Amino acid sequence: DPLADLRARVNADSGNAGLRRQLAEALFERGLRDEGLAELELAMIGSERGNDLEGASSIADEIIRLNPNSVRHHQKRVEYAFRTSDRARLVDAYLELADALFRSGQPEKARTVYQRVLELSPEDIRAQAALSAFIEPTASPTPRKTTAQPERKGTPERSGVFRRYTGEMKRSPEPELPPLPVEPKIPTDPAGFVNLGEWLKDDTPKSTRMVVQEQAPTGDEQADFADMLRAFKQGVAQNVEDEDHQSHYDLGVAYKEMGLVDEAIAEFQKALRGAEGRVRTYEALGQCFLEKSQFQVAATLLVRALSEPGHTDEQLVGVLYLLGYSNEAIQQWSDALAYYQRVFAVDIEFRDVGDRIAALERVAT
Predict the structure, then answer these.
(1) Quick one: CA dihedral 351, 352, 356, 358, positive or negative?
(2) Is residue 7 classed exposed, middle or buried when 0-12, 13-18 and 19+ CB atoms within 10 A define those classes?
């Protein structure tokens, strides 16, 4: 059976994207559509991990031909076009993504993407025509000479982000950086989470591994807290091995949630010595240094996360956003814009990335 033979060959060489694509075609010929799509998905991921972005993009095209409303695969086409610096393909991918979003009942997201197309290609007739459908009728019937542009929440002309990049700000050697809108949520392992607040407030030891000697309160809350924190650190030093990287990561999360940024940094640095979860640890460390306004340190640290093997831009989206922010802070406008664009390519609604892109593009012009 040729199909069984193909399955066996794929099982023997699971990383071969070409073989998986052949298997997908064979499955389609047998009428096994869902299995065929699953194999194409694996082939696309394999090509991407092998840095064959042209091959991955071609497979994404094939998936979309079979499933035109798959928003996720339209987003992958945008990502691949951006990463290969193919502007024409990027515009086309954005347009088809917007169409898919509109068909799937997400008009606001579609409008955001159509607007992005006009930022890249102001004369694009398809985007202009699509956006005209979003324009609310005005009270005056008098025709206007210029094409009205849709008003949407967060457009650069109206956003606070844009106002910080007006001509006056551009003349200033040190423009004010907009604050991070929402602090990134540091991923944690619920099963292994260490709640430092509970450690410090509860007199009962949480395990036999660590016992903090109880001291009578003095009435000075700040001094009592400092004493408990010092005792807790001693317990950590005595009971948590340097090689227990997960525990050090969890401790970093706990310290950070209490506002103890320096202590959090020390624990995240220890966690980074392990082989697992390095991207999330880089992101947590970068956020800590941003909170300390050490933007160059944050940028230097975060860029190392991009070299970690086996991670796509979808998995690195938080790191990419923080890289954009830190480069914006040190006035590396082009680098900041490039990182924000990578975020936008995989998640058009990630925080305020659309506003930041629009603001930086105005700075560059």
Answers:
(1) positive
(2) middle
* 2-132 and 190-364: identical CATH topology: yes
Give the Cα separation of 164 and 177 in Å (integer): 8
- The torsion of the CA quartet 332, 336, 338, 344, rounded to 10 degrees, works out to -170
> What CATH architecture is 2-132?
Alpha Horseshoe (1.25)
Q: Which two tokens stand for residue 334?
A: 């082009």
Residue 98 near residue 113, CB atoms below 8 Å: yes
CB neighbours of residue 135 within 10 Å:
12
| Model pLDDT for residues 258-300, shown as the tens digit of each residue | 788 898 999 899 999 988 889 999 999 999 999 999 999 999 9
Q: Which is higher by pLDDT, 244 or 157? A: 244
Q: Are 287 and 184 in contact (CB under 8 A)?
A: yes
∠ CA 133-136-137, nearest 5°, is: 105
Token pair 């990419």 is found at 320
CA distance 29 to 44: 20
The dihedral built from the CA positions of residue 96, 354, 303 and 346, taken in this order, carries a sign that is negative
Q: Which residue has the higher pLDDT, 134 or 354?
A: 354
% of the chain with per-residue pLDDT over 90: 24
Question: Is the CATH number 1.25.40.10 carried by domain 190-364?
Answer: yes
Amino acid at 358: A
**Per-residue pLDDT at 323 exceeds 60:** yes
Mean pLDDT across the stretch 169-196? 42
pLDDT, averaged across the chain: 76
State mean pLDDT over 311-332. 91
Instruction: For the chain, give every domain's residue range.
Output: 2-132, 190-364
